[in-house]
């Protein structure tokens, strides 16, 4: 299932197919904090997840937007790094709808929840299903 890290559409499709991953954000003490989350992506590669408004990740993203995300399925692992933000207004409705399309019945747009959008800046695709393993990296910045 090898695909190039520079191919935003292929990366987005992989994320959508997986539907989950681990996000690492930076806590108030400058220590990393990780969480397993439901995850989707728009066609242009914007990552989207929801969180409780009171969650650590929502507070972390609001104060320190640098995040890393890992998504894996079978022999392929995709690492992504970027800048996250709590979406508001029209963006919240738009990316929240994309999240709800992937996860029908989600509570992403309900009161007490936030929708987090991640602008990806760097991607690494690692496929051990090939011999030798295939690794591609791309700077999306």
Number of domains: 1
Shape: globular
Helix content: 10-25%
Count of helical stretches: 3
Order of helices and strands: HEEEEHEEHEE
| Distance N to C terminus | 25 Å
What is the mean pLDDT? 96
Protein name: Pyridoxamine 5'-phosphate oxidase
Keywords: Oxidoreductase
Domain Pyridoxamine 5'-phosphate oxidase N-terminal: 10-125
InterPro entries: F420H2_bilvrd_red/Heme_oxyg, Pyridox_Oxase_N, Split_barrel_FMN-bd
Walk me through what this model shows.
By secondary structure, the chain is of the alpha+beta class. It has a single domain (8-139), classed as Electron Transport, Fmn-binding Protein, Chain A (Pnp Oxidase, Chain A, Roll), CATH 2.30.110.10. The chain is 23% helix and 44% strand. The protein has helices spanning 8-18, 56-63, 89-102; strands spanning 20-26, 32-38, 40-41, 47-52, 66-73, 76-86, 113-127, 134-139. Strands 1, 2, 3, 4, 5, 6, 7 and 8 form an eight-stranded antiparallel sheet that branches. The longest helix is centred in the C-terminal third of the chain and has 14 residues, at 89-102. The radius of gyration is 15 Å and the shape is globular. The two termini are 25 Å apart. The mean pLDDT is 96.
In brief, what are we looking at here?
The protein is an alpha+beta fold and 141 residues long. Helix content is 23%, strand content 44%.
